[in-house]
Amino acid sequence: MAGTPPVLRLFVLHHAGGSHLSYRRWPAGLPRSWDVRLLDAPGHGMLLDQPRITDAGKLADRLLADIERELTAPYALFGHSMGGLLAYEVTRRIVARRLPLPVWAGISARPAPQFAGLGRTLHTLSDEELRFRLRHLGGTPGAVLDDPDLWALFAPLVRCDLRLVETWRPAADAGPLPVALSAYAGGTDLSAPPARMAGWARHSDRFLGLRVFDGGHFHFDGDPSALLRQIRLDATAALDGAAVRRSGSPAPDHFGAA
User: Fold this and answer.
1) Cβ neighbours of 254 (radius 10 Å)
2) Contact (Cβ atoms closer than 8 angstroms) between residue 238 and residue 76
3) Are 234 and 106 within 8 A, CB to CB?
4) Neighbours of 149 (CB within 10 A)
5) Alpha-carbon distance 53 to 85, whole Å?
């Protein structure tokens, strides 16, 4: 029926150097009753003509401004890598402004805030070293890394995003979020290993757990079905939990292992 609100509105935030295009198959793999919104940061994807934002806090402000009018149904945020950091910062701003809270946040391949600054700095590497690292991480088409002209276009974008991520530090007064949260890791991801992803437990009052998948930083790149199945389970469990808190009734168990 036209005008029927979705069961869940899911906002998906992309990784450094990426865009909504990397996630274009996701809506078809999630429930039809969900409204899946694939966001682009300025300077990426459909917003390629807009100036890039180089500060994580300012980018989170912009993303929240873009979606605020859409927070009219139960909603959730999922972010991968840079997108995970932004999902966290957007949620912090939602809490601070007393806007309607998301029922769930999913953080993928982004170490917990207490590990900020401990990883290797990539945005200052030479072109040769950076291409090598990006090829190892995955998520960037080989044609972009191998073609000098494409690389010349892509390199400033990915360096900007990497600098945003690598210079970010958590707010000193940041407490746990009053939002259900799940963490997702690739078992062989050296940039966001499971041990550092498990640290998200201290940043949510309702931590749903760490889900570890076979593969590295972009473990879902070839086939996202396992990740999407777990997102559906976790977000549905969070929706059920929200219903329980409103009604006091028992909730069905929707939790599952990756």
Assistant:
1) 15
2) yes
3) yes
4) 8
5) 14
Alpha-carbon distance of 206 to 216, in angstroms, equals 26
Question: Which amino acid is it at 106?
Answer: G
C-alpha–C-alpha distance, residues 39 and 82, integer Å: 13
* CATH class as words, domain 8-119+170-247: alpha beta
Buried (b) or exposed (e) across 224-243, using 16+ Cβ within 10 A?
beebbebbbbbbbbbbbbbe
* Cross-strand bridge partners of residue 10: 36, 76
Q: How far is CA 18 from CA 8, 58, 140, 166, in A?
A: 24, 18, 8, 16
The rounded distance, in Å, linking the Cα atoms of 111 and 114 is: 8
Question: Which sign, positive or negative, has the C-alpha torsion 38, 44, 46, 50?
Answer: positive
pTM attached to this predicted model: 0.92
Within 53-105, residue ranges assigned H as helices are 56-67, 82-96
- Cα 233 to chain centroid, rounded: 17
10, 44, 77, 122 from 137: Cα distances, Å:
26, 20, 23, 12
- Token pair 């180089």 is found at 54
- Phi first, then psi, for residue 27 (nearest 5°) are -55, -35
Per-residue pLDDT of the chain (258 residues; tens, 9 = 90+): 457 889 999 999 999 999 999 999 999 999 999 999 999 999 999 999 999 999 999 999 999 999 999 999 999 999 999 999 999 999 999 999 999 999 999 999 999 999 998 877 899 899 999 999 999 899 899 999 999 999 999 999 999 999 999 999 999 889 999 999 999 999 999 999 999 999 999 999 999 999 999 999 999 998 999 999 999 999 999 999 887 777 665 544 433 333
